[in-house]
Amino acid sequence: MISIILTILLFSLLVIFFKLFERFNVISLHAISINYLFAAGWGFVFAMQPFNIIDILDSKWIYHAMVIGCMFIFVFNLLALGTQKVGIAVATVANKMSLVIPVIFSLFFYASDTVNFMKIVGISLALAGVYFSSTEGGKLAFDKRYLWLIATIFFMQGVADITFNHAQETTVQPEEMETFFGALFLVAGLAGSIAALPKIISKQEKLKPSALLFGIMFGITNYLTLQFMFEALSTPGLEPSLVYPLVSMGVVLTSAIAGLVFFKEKLSLSNWFGIGLAVVAIATLAYAA
Fold first, then answer.
1. Which residues make beta-bridge pairs with 127?
2. How far apart are CA 154 and CA 160, in angstroms?
3. What DSSP letter does each residue of 41-84 carry, written as one string?
4. How does pLDDT run across 72-125, given as a tens digit for each residue?
5. Which residues have CB under 8 Å from 38's CB, separation 6+?
6. How far is Cα 254 from Cα 145, in angstroms, rounded to an integer?
7. 209 CB neighbour count, 10 Å cutoff
8. What span, in angstroms and rounded, lies between the C-alpha atoms of 195 and 211?
9. Which residues lie below 8 Å from residue 172, measured CB to CB, with a gap of 6+?
10. Is residue 276 exposed (0-12), middle (13-18) or buried (19+ Cβ within 10 Å)?
11. Are 251 and 11 in contact (CB under 8 A)?
12. Which helix (H) or strand (E) holds 136?
């Protein structure tokens, strides 16, 4: 249970970093790219078995790592923008409620998964939670120009989770986990660097020391989040179908409270009702698993 609590707190800290990027005028893409390069180095250093670049390129999971890495840099940058434009609570709910996408996917594509009443209720509550957490009086609680942002975070995080779960199920061996993480982090870092370089070279943007500092702090937090998540998944008596929902519930609540306490983000009763529905939805899906 300690691992679950630490995972929740560390992921919530990642979301807070996104708001700090804005406050300290840090370009999100720069800091997030540095974060992934740092986390990749950490993953390779602590890999459980010897490896080389040829082994990685010849691995069964290399294509998974490439796809997930590109999705990670894309989703994290959108999540950073989301926390800055629509608030921590709304962006986090959209991110964490995306778990309904792999649930729905598994119902259609995995023979071991079956439809039942509780799963239907859980999915319905999750979608309702996203609606109420982002609306007020039937209208969006934020500038409608950013509706695409919430929808994209929701969808892309769900697709990333599907791809990640598929890699775990089909291609990645337990002893390869650190190497796999290092590879996908490296892909994410390189993808972000390639995207950022043209503006840096043309001097439209400047790589600031603050981006390096935040990137390293973010990278440490990001890797530890993943490490404690896997410790939680390895804890006897804690099934993955319970760990993921518990972490999601904790992050939704903790992030909403952090936004209120540290950044004075105001939420209406409708928004709090939506957050409550999101928590109930996750609990329902955990029970139905």
1. none
2. 10
3. HHHHHT-SS---HHHHHHSTTHHHHHHHHHHHHHHHHHHHHHHH
4. 999 999 999 999 988 898 888 888 888 788 777 877 776 555 667 887 888 888
5. 189, 215, 216, 219, 220
6. 27
7. 7
8. 15
9. 61, 64, 180
10. middle
11. yes
12. strand 135-136
Alpha helices in the chain (DSSP H): 2-23, 28-45, 53-58, 62-85, 88-96, 100-109, 117-133, 147-170, 177-201, 209-233, 240-263, 269-288
- Residue 274's domain comprises 2-288
Pairing state between β 135-136 and 139-140: antiparallel
Question: Looking at the whole model, is its pTM more than 0.85?
Answer: no
Number of domains present in the structure of the chain: 1
SS3 125: helix
- Each residue's pLDDT tens digit, 137-176: 767 777 888 889 989 998 998 898 888 878 877 888 877 8
Residue type, 154: F
Amino acid present at 89: A
- Maximal C-alpha separation, the chain: 58
